[in-house]
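Bench notes, bay 3.
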Amino acid sequence: MNNEYKLTKFVQAAGCAAKMGPGDLKQALCHLKANNEQVLVGFDTSDDAGIYQLSDNLALVQTVDFITPVVDDPYIYGQIAAANSLSDVFAMGGEVKTALNIVGFDSANVSKEALAEILRGGFEKVKECGGSLLGGHTIQTPEMYYGLSVTGIIHPNDVKRNNGARPGDLLVLTKPIGMGILTTAIKRDLIDINLIKHCAEIMASLNYIPSKIMKKFRVNSCTDITGFGLLGHAFECTNENISFVIDSNSVPVVKEAFDLVAQGVLPGGSKRNIKFCEDKVNFNIENNNMKSILCDAQTSGGLLVAINKDDAKEFVKEIQDFSFGYAKIIGEVIPKDKLPIIVN
């Protein structure tokens, strides 16, 4: 991996851009309501993308996201940022059609050659899932960021909402967590090149194939795990009729994250997630490091799928090759308990 540009150093110097916490974001959006009956999914819920119905058989899936550098190699950073943006369409069960680049270019620290590599990485990921890159918009900024505005399609009856889980469903996670801790360690030069490559490969992998495979099974809800962490996004998937029970021992974690969090390596976003979850999660575990990892803010994380219990094992088996062997059943859906999330 080419570390010539040291992109993460410039992010650290400028102060890494943090995603707004789930509580603050909900408060900011609470007065905005969709006013069109063709809007099937808007911003009044916590779903991953918006859905706009065009006809009885066709709806648009729309989303936008961007991130600051999480690795130094510009091409790999471009891949990761694009995978992160595309993931919201896959979480809704949609098919990517087009994408537009969104670029904040730090010309003082990032060369035009590096920018070209970032864009090439993003282009390759859009192409990988059958989409077409149509252009984009670039501005000069004091800190580098890159992402995509993505448009997909879906049949209106096939939309996978994040809050449709039913009691008895099992919960499957398709990628490991701990990436926020590990990318913070990358910025601090605390991990070796082999671990950096492993993390980059996981983050750059698309949720495209697991999303296609899940259509074969009885999936009742789906979301992708990103900035709010596993527990924050799991909370968004609960409703007034259900709670999630998560077995912490079953949750896939990149193992080096345990040593790093014990050393105090934890991004600010993860700390905000911990505070947000205080009154929403019943922790039946004493391990504070595990609590931190379960709340760790992810970049280009996996899908959290609530699936019929009779389909869960076969689904995990079919996606193993696309999850680096990490995909696991991590819990179950139960009738509403005192709190939305229970961690054992």
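Next record in the batch:
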Amino acid sequence: MKKILFPTDFSEAATNAFVHALEFAKIVNAELVLLHTFEIPVYDSQFFPENYASIYSSIELAKFEMFKDEIPKLRTIAAERKLDNIVIKHRLMDGDLVFNLKKAVEEDHIDFVIMGTSGVSDWTKFFLGSNTSSVISEVKVPVLCIPADAKFKKIKIIGFTTRYREKDKAELRKVLEIARKTNAKVKSLYVRTSNTDVPDTTIKEWDKEFANENVEFLVLPSDEVKETILDFVLYKDVDVLTVITHKKSFFESIFESSFSKKITKEVSIPVLVMHET
């Protein structure tokens, strides 16, 4: 059985993402590991010589009580969606979120991370938010990022961006496996710029290799890569967009602030970030 790590701060955005995590767990037959982290403030022991330890103990106890009170609320959401058969485990850790997330991924042998983002439909905030971008760049398992106002709906079309590199095939196969379980179609996009280095023979090879899969390959000529990707999302009714990251600057270039302001139609869909293998 696969394992999904779901970091939560019990905010509205996180609770919305929890629904996606439940539904995704059902699709890939996974159990959920809920992770809540908290930072203990640093105190100088010379000013609190007698109650130094009790200060830390009281903070930890308060966090534990809050954590304990929030869990039944999430279990109620699972029951309401008839997904209470999904195994849900918990981790409460003190310290830095990204450090603990990486630690949990390693120790619990996590296959996916699913997390809510604080930036609503603004993709700039979405990708450049400190926690989201840190997780994307440092956690080496697929990360499904859920915008705060992206309500769950059945996944019918999964978008997949590629540059037709040989290593992209492995990630495409992973996406096709997910698509099969939800009866979704995969639409693969390559934006062919005027200085492209991908020969037609490579594109034909991919068409032949994946001929028996439920995938449609789109090659769109344009030097406006960012606009083309967003048009693809909007006009192909993409429910989840898959991207393969190799540099954090990739996101910064696509979703820079000046560009995001040009978006006239709201884009608010989950983004599945795969890592180069």
